[in-house]
Amino acid sequence: MSKKIKEALKILIDLGVPKGQQNERTALCLLALAEVKKNSKWADVKNPRLGITPMMEYASKQYQKKYAPNTRETFRRQSMHQLVEGGIALYNPDEPERAVNSPNAVYQISPGALKVVKEYGTVRYAAALKEFKKKTVGLIERYSKEREMKLIPVKIKDGMELKLSPGEHSQLIKDIIEQFAPRFLRGADLLYVGDTGEKWGYFDKEKAQELDIIVDEHGKMPDVIFYFSEKQWLVLVESVTSHGPVDSKRHIELQKLFEASKPAKVFVTAFPHRQVMAKYLSEIAWETEVWVADNPTHMIHFNGERFLGPYG
To answer: What DSSP string describes 13-66?
Structure first.
């Protein structure tokens, strides 16, 4: 472990990060956020806005620490999430309303943490650290309340309410549950809701086990899953605002992911409006269905064989 990584780790410990984040990966995140190179001086730190991939690239280029592309979620959930919660980093400071799953999502070191990092190795470091800890308690509480206010409430069964991360994608998931299902799947059980902030927004594990649904945490789950007992259908819905309709490739993936489950499968792509749908018309797989939120009483079926039903 290089000297700069060790020093970054020491700073993180001093800042009070949890033990689970007292590691090389999180130290590299801090170094990237402060734009600190092997031969840089801590006094010369900067505060660029960076996404997860640029942070990983920085670690590779500056510190020869290479991580596989599929570790992006580990960086996001096991390092950056805690740095944001601890007031050390800011999430989307340029556009707080940006969706969590946006490809433009960025992080930036917080002003308070920047002051601490800048003073590392000087006689002013202890004072900067003390000031950070004093102010951060209030900041974390304020940011937590602000995030809570931005969450999108969704009505679940028996008066239960689920709160999804803010963004157009989550709003469409809300429409799928509250507008699509009551019209076309009246009485269906909601089994799963993915959230752009937390993958397992809602999961009825007991009902899923009854239906022999084997969930692979490493597989890419659809956004919403319903079980329509009246017709014994498992309805898999993709919420599409910027990418990801049920195209031929995704159709095969979902069939494979749920091949062990008993009910017949119905595949639905949901769009917020027809302008977004128009962008993906040529990609949508045959033998699937389309629902558009701004025309909630209508469905489009991609085949003339039947309307809203399983095939094969």
So the answer is: HHHT--GGG-SHHHHHHHHHHTT--TT--GGG-----B-HHHHHHHHHHHH---
pLDDT at 101: 64
Q: Which two tokens stand for residue 170?
A: 């989550």
Q: What is the DSSP letter of 260?
A: T
- 141's tokens: 């509480």
Q: What pLDDT sits at residue 82?
A: 87
Q: Does the pTM exceed 0.90?
A: no
pLDDT beyond 50 at 231: yes
Q: At 156, which helix (H) or strand (E)?
A: none
Decide if 222 contacts 270 (C-beta within 8 A). Answer: no
CA 77, CA 15: separation in Å to the nearest integer? 19
Q: Using one digit for the tens of pLDDT, what is the confidence trace for 129-152? A: 999 988 875 444 555 555 555 566
Res. 25: pLDDT tops 80: yes
Percent over 90 (pLDDT), the chain: 44
DSSP 59-127: HHHHH-----GGGHHHHIIIIIHHHHHTTSEEESTT-TTS-TT-TT--EEE-HHHHHHHHTTTSTTHHH
Domains of the chain in start order, with CATH, are 3-147 (1.10.10.1820), 152-301 (3.40.1350.80)
- For residue 168, the model assigns a pLDDT of 80
Sole residue written with tokens 């789950």: 221
CA 283 to chain CA centroid, Å, is 24
**If phi over 0 gives left and psi between -120 and 50 gives alpha, with beta otherwise, what is residue 255?**
alpha
CA dist 80 and 74 (Å) reads: 9
Q: With beta carbons less than 8 A apart as the criterion, state whether 138 and 131 touch.
A: no
CA distances from 173 to 223, 247, 269, 291 (A): 7, 19, 11, 12
What does the pLDDT look like over 30-48, one tens digit per residue? 999 999 999 999 999 999 9
